[in-house]
Amino acid sequence: MVENKLKSLRNQIDDIDSKILNLINQRLEIGKKVGQIKKETGSGILDRTREKSVIEKLSKINQGPADKQLLRYFFNVIITATRDIQKPKTVSFLGPEASYSHIAALAHFRYSGKFVEQPNLYEIFREVEKNESHYGVVPVENSIEGAVTHTLDLFGNFDLNICAEHYEPVSHDLLSITGEQNDVKKICSHPQALAQCRAWIKKKYSQAQIIETSSTSKAALLASEDKYMAAIASKQAAHIYALQTVESRIEDHSGNITRFLVIGKDLPEPSGNDKTSIMFATSHIPGALFKALEPIDKAGLNMLKLESRPTRHQNWSYYFFLDIEGHQQDKRLVETIKEIKKYSLSLKILGSYPVFVKEDYEA
Fold first, then answer.
1. Is the pLDDT of residue 295 over 90?
2. Are 54 and 85 in contact (CB under 8 A)?
C-alpha cells in the first residue's frame, strides 16, 4: 500500500519534471529570439535591471512553499542560461586563475561565460576595446588602501563604459609548498595585498625578502615553484596551485572589501537605483573645482566619491573622478552635468549602472 502510494507520488514528480523541462526549453527558445532582437538593435545582452525585475515580480506572486532564497537561486540559474544562449560572453580578468579579480568576475557573472586571464589591467581594457572580450572586470578601489590609480588612469585612454559594479570581500592567506613557517624566506604578492598585511609581515617575517607581483594569483604561481617562497593570496589559490596554508586571514584589518567595475560597451538602462561615474578636468585657477562641484549641491544630488589623478599633459593639472547618485538619463542629472561642463576643460561620462546590492548575487 505504502509502496504504491510512493510510486504514484514519484510518477507525479516525473510528470512535473517533464513539464518543467519543456517549459525551460520554451523559455530558452524565446530567449534566442530576444537575443536576436538585441543584436539587431545594438542592445547589450547583460540587462541587470530586467533580470532583477523578473525575480521581484515572481517573488510577489510566490505562494510557497518555495522561499525567496530558493526562488532567487532557481531563476538566477534559468536567467543565466537564457543569457548564455543569446550570446556566450567572454570576460577578461587580471590573472592568473584564482586572483581576486577572477573571484569577482565569477561571482558577478555567476560562473556563466568564458573567463580569460590577462597579464595586466591595460590588456583587459584593450581586449574589450578590440571586441575580443565582451566585458572586463577591473579593481577600482579598496576599503583600506583606497583607489586603484592605474585603473582610473586607463579610463582616460580608452572609450569604454562602466556597465556594473561588484563588491568582493577580501581575505588573505599565507601560502607555500610545505605550509611550514620556518621555510618562509621570501614573501610575494600584489602591492595592495602586501600593504594590507604590512603590520602582520613586520611582526612575523621582518627578515623576509618582499617581492611584488602583478596579482595575488601570480604570487601563488611563483610560490608553487619555490619551497622558500610564500604567497599572500586567496584561499582559492591554495587549491588551484596545490599550496598549503601557513596562516589564514593575515590582513591587518578585518572587513576588507574591494570594489570592482565591469567595463564594456553596453549602456545599461535606468534601474531606479543607479550611480553615474564621470571624469573631468578644470582650469588650474582658484575656485575652479568648487564651481564645478557646486551644481551637484544645488541639485540636491548625493556625491558618492571624488578622486583626483594627474593629467600627465601639464604639471599640476588633474582629472577628477566623480560618482553621483542617479542615471545619466535622469532629467535632474542631465542638467547637473551640463552645469559641471561649463566649469570644465573636458568632461567624459564613464557610465551609469545599478548600485551594487549584495543579495542580488547570492544563491
1. yes
2. no
Q: Which fold has domain 268-363?
A: Alpha-Beta Plaits (3.30.70)
Distance CA 96, CA 119 (A): 7
Instruction: Tell whether domain 173-250 is in CATH 3.40.190.10.
Output: yes
Q: For 156-214, how does the pLDDT look when each residue is reduced to its tens digit (9 = 90+)?
A: 999 999 999 999 999 999 999 999 999 999 999 999 899 999 999 999 999 999 999 98
Domain 2-86 has CATH 1.20.59.10: yes
Residues of the chain with CATH 3.30.70.260: 268-363
Calculate the CA 205 to chain-centre distance.
32
DSSP H or E run through 280: strand 274-281
Which residue from 357, 279, 263, 271 is spatially nearest to 320, judged by alpha carbons? 279
pLDDT per residue as tens digits for the range 59-68: 888 888 888 7
Mean pLDDT value of segment 140-148: 91
Written as one letter, the residue type at 247 is E
Give the Å distances, CA to CA, from 232 to 27, 212, 223: 45, 10, 9
Contact 279, 156 (CB under 8 A): yes
Which regions of 68-170 does DSSP assign to beta strands (E)? 90-94, 114-118, 135-142, 146-147, 161-169
Q: What pLDDT score was predicted for residue 251?
A: 95
Q: Tell me, what's the pLDDT at 360?
A: 60
Q: How far is CA 126 from CA 109, 158, 210, 232, 263, in A?
A: 20, 8, 30, 28, 11
Residues of the chain with CATH 3.40.190.10: 173-250
Task: Indicate if the pLDDT at residue 73 is higher than 80.
Answer: no
Measuring CA to CA, which residue among 316, 337, 312 is closest to residue 327?
337
Beta-strand relationship, 114-118 and 90-94: parallel
Does residue 21 sit in helix, strand or coil? helix
